[in-house]
Design goal:
The protein is mostly helical. It has helices at 2-15, 28-66.
């Protein structure tokens, strides 16, 4: 899911609505929308990655706990 969100954000940024070829703002409202949309998608991707990391750590801890030698 995070990879999909990242790809969507990259596509939005690649279109660079509101910016010219050198990255200068040509349309303030369109540029603002571009940055906000991409930012929201990247924020969601970060949330998904953080959850995956927490789940992985939880699974590793459980594995270690369940396989300790007495």
């Amino acid at each position: 899911e995070a990879q999909k969100l990242h790809a969507e954000a990259a596509a939005i940024l690649q279109k660079h609505d509101g910016f010219d070829g050198s990255g200068k703002v040509t349309d303030l409202e369109a540029a603002r929308e571009t940055v906000q949309e991409a930012g929201a998608l990247l924020k969601d991707a970060r949330r998904d990655l953080n959850q995956a990391i927490r789940d992985l750590l939880r699974a590793v801890r459980a594995q270690v706990r369940d396989n300790r030698k007495p």
